[in-house]
Every structure is written in structure tokens, then in C-alpha cells.
Write a structure and sequence with these properties.
It contains 13 helices and 8 strands. It is mostly helical. Strands 1-2 form a two-stranded antiparallel ribbon. A two-stranded parallel sheet has the order 3-6. It has a two-stranded antiparallel sheet with strand order 4-5.
């Protein structure tokens, strides 16, 4: 059995593998193991399993080897390549799909995780893997040399101090995502959030982040989320003629939804383990207004200049 050091190394490697997969979660294309339909995006495939098949998989945050996890499930569904379907929870031979679905519903075997299917554990992070050390070993480590313990803490902090976040408008992962959005897309997210009259707290910002990610994945304008804007058709025509990115550059105010929903549905992360939410939104204090130094007045941001240009074009067009 490995010691605490090897357990920590394994845990860190597993978390890094999960994070790397989540960073491409919106573009990851996965085949359904039941119907073979290919679905784009980790969250979308989870919704496909629940909506199309009534199956609820474990959260992808706990899966280290996703390919192995899905391959193992398919092997349990179709034992030895047999066309007859089996229940992966109780191993019953159900035969055709209709009987299999009836069995899943009647027996309540629709939850597939390490608790209901223990053989999935090698592909996941489970608490049991990292709680097997005896109490004496833990006490010895707790009372060990302070200098060595501090050195170990420094190593962990050095490795995890900065977590790259995936841009809201492209797939670039950056340690300074807000600056990247200004430089690459002309979007000052902090200024946009602070100037939006519908933003009241950090939960509204989380909703906005998830809405933008959904709209970018679908190629739709965030400003018209849920079709609540009267100029939705104008935006669609603009994007057909160019692109979503070009449309947002021309209309900087459209990077945020016109109306911020108040329901909890938009609090569910679109990108599992979204570092933009955990570090930039929750830890970035986006709602705090920076005090302006009279000796060094703030220059207009790119987003502000673009917004003024857009407003000028709209005024000239209405004259």
C-alpha cells in the first residue's frame, strides 16, 4: 500500500487530468454507449443520458479516465460483445432494449456510479482511495518535522496557486483571463458586469458566465438569451453575415444578457469545474469598484471605446 506522499501525488495527477478534460469540455465530442449518437460537450452528454435513456451517470468531476469509464460500462451492457443487453448494476440479462429499459425503471437501477457499480472505481476518484492509511501513520505525519512539512506545503502551493481559466468567448486557457478577453476580443468583462443594472451579486455573475458559455457553444447572441430581446432577428442576421465574434465586437453590450435570470438553473456550471467561476468570479471581487487616483485618471477601456463607437453608429443610423 502506498504512503501519504504517493496518495497525494496520485490525487494531484488525477485532478490535473480532470481539469485538462474540463478545459475542452464544450468541444469534447462523445458517443453515447447506448445508442451511439455523438454528442458535443460533457454537460450535453449527461443531459442526453438522462433525457433520452433515463440514466444518471456520476458527475464527470469524479471521473479520471473517461474513455475507460465509458468503455467499461459498454462492456457490462453488452457482455462479451453479445447483442443482448444486461443491467450493469445487477448483471441481469434483460435481452432486448425495451425489456432492459423496463428493468432499469422498475428496479431503480438508473444511477450509475461507484456506489451502484463498484467496478467503475478504478476509473474514478473515490474517497476510499485516500483514507486507507492507519491512524498511527497520520499522527506521526502530523507531529513530524515542521520544516519538512512547510517545504511540502510550498510544493503544493507552487503547483496549485494559479489555475488557468478558459475564456468565455474562445477555448484559450489563461492565468489572466480578464486581460486576455480585453486583448483578444475587446471585451472588458469587469466593466461590463459593473455597468449592468441587472447584476446584484456574485450569483448573477455566475449566471452570466454560464449563459455566455451556452450561447457561444450554440453560436447565438448572449444579449437575446431566452429570446427576451425584440431585436433578436437583427442579431441573427448580423451573425449570419459575419460571425458571433464579429457581432460582439460591433455590439459590445451584447456580450451580456439583456435580462439576468433569477432562477437557479443558470447556476449549474456549463463547464464542469469552471475555473473562471471559482477563481475569477468568486475570488476576483468583480463587483468592487476601484478607486480612481486623481493623479492617474483611468483611461477608457477598449470595451468603453467600442461601446461609444457603436452608440455613435446607432445614433447616425436613426437620423
Amino acid at each position: 500500500m502506498g504512503g501519504p506522499a504517493s496518495d497525494l501525488t496520485t490525487l494531484r495527477a488525477s485532478c490535473k487530468a480532470i481539469l485538462a478534460r474540463h478545459q475542452r469540455g464544450l468541444t469534447l465530442e462523445l458517443p453515447c454507449i447506448l445508442c451511439q449518437q455523438r454528442v458535443r460537450g460533457q454537460q450535453s452528454i449527461l443531459e442526453h443520458y438522462s433525457d433520452a435513456h433515463g440514466i444518471y451517470l456520476t458527475n464527470y468531476d469524479n471521473i479520471v479516465d473517461l474513455d475507460g469509464f465509458l468503455a467499461h460500462l459498454r462492456e457490462m451492457l453488452f457482455l462479451r460483445g453479445d447483442e443482448r443487453m444486461h443491467c450493469p448494476v445487477c448483471r441481469k440479462d434483460c435481452g432486448e432494449e425495451a425489456l432492459w429499459m423496463a428493468h432499469i425503471a422498475e428496479e431503480g437501477h438508473s444511477q450509475w456510479d461507484t456506489d451502484t457499480i463498484p467496478t467503475l472505481a478504478p476509473f474514478c476518484i473515490t474517497a476510499e482511495k485516500f483514507m486507507e492509511g492507519d491512524e498511527e501513520e497520520e499522527e506521526e505525519n502530523a507531529n513530524g518535522d515542521n520544516a519538512a512539512e512547510n517545504d511540502g506545503d510550498d510544493d503544493v502551493e507552487e503547483d496549485w496557486s494559479v489555475e488557468p481559466a478558459v475564456c468565455l468567448l474562445c477555448e484559450t486557457a489563461s492565468e489572466n483571463c480578464l486581460s486576455h478577453m480585453i486583448d483578444a476580443h475587446g471585451v472588458d468583462f469587469r466593466a461590463a458586469v459593473q455597468s449592468h443594472v441587472g447584476v446584484r451579486d456574485v450569483y448573477d455573475i455566475i449566471r452570466i458566465v454560464n449563459i455566455i458559455r451556452k450561447c457561444v457553444a450554440r453560436g447565438t447572441c448572449p444579449f437575446n438569451y431566452r429570446g427576451e430581446s425584440t431585436d433578436a432577428e437583427t442579431c441573427r442576421c448580423s451573425m449570419v453575415a459575419s460571425s458571433l465574434e464579429a457581432h460582439l465586437r460591433e455590439h459590445p453590450l451584447h456580450v451580456l444578457p439583456r435580462v439576468v435570470p433569477s432562477d437557479d438553473r443558470e447556476l449549474i456550471p456549463v463547464l464542469c469545474g469552471d475555473a473562471f467561476i471559482s477563481s475569477v468570479v468568486v475570488g476576483g471581487d468583480l463587483l468592487t469598484q476601484a478607486e480612481e487616483d486623481p493623479d492617474y485618471p483611468m483611461v477608457p477601456t477598449i470595451a468603453e471605446m467600442a461601446r461609444k463607437q457603436a452608440e455613435g453608429r446607432q445614433k447616425r443610423g436613426s437620423m
